[in-house]
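Hey L., structure's done. Input below.
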Amino acid sequence: MNTMKQSFKLLFVILLALGSFACSETEKKLTLDDVKAAEKTLMDENWTMNMDKASQVAETYCKFVEQNPNDSTAPTWLFHAMEINVNLKNADKCVELCNQLVDKYPESDWSPRSLILLGSYVYEDQLQDTALAHKAYQRLIDEYPNHHLVSDAEVLIKCLGLTDEEKLNMILMSQMEEED
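Output:
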C-alpha cells in the first residue's frame, strides 16, 4: 500500500511538472516580429479584413501589450486591437480596450483617438446610446483640451441625436457662416 501511495505521488509530481512545462510553452513571450506576422494575416488579397483571423490578430496585439506594457508600441497595438473589435462589433471589448489605453497610456496620441472611436462607432453606431457617446466625447475634451480632435468632439456632441439630413444642414449652415 505504501509503494502504491509513493507511485501515485511520483505520478502526480511528473504530471504537475509536465503541465507546468506545457503552460510555459503556450505563454511564449511575444515579440514585435510575432505581432507583425499576425498583422499580415489580417487583410486578404483584396485588402478586406479577414474576419476569420481578426479576433486572433486582436488577441495577439493584446497579449503583446500584456507581456510588454512598457514597449513604446504598446498603445498602437491596443488601438489597433480596438479597431478590429469595432469591425467585429464587440462593443464590450472596445470599451475595455479604450479604458485600458486611456488609463495606462494617457500621454499617447492614440488615447484621444480611441475616445472618438468609442463614442462614434461603438456608442453611437453600434449601441445607439447617445448619452454614452456624449460621455466619451466629453472625456476627450476634458482630458485632452489641447488635442486637435477636441473640435471634432465638440461637433459630434452637437450632432448627437440628429438625423443625417439635420447633420448635413448643420454642416452647410456652418460653411455659409464661415464664408460671410
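DSSP finds nine helices and no strands in the chain. The first helix runs from residue 2 to 26.

-- N.
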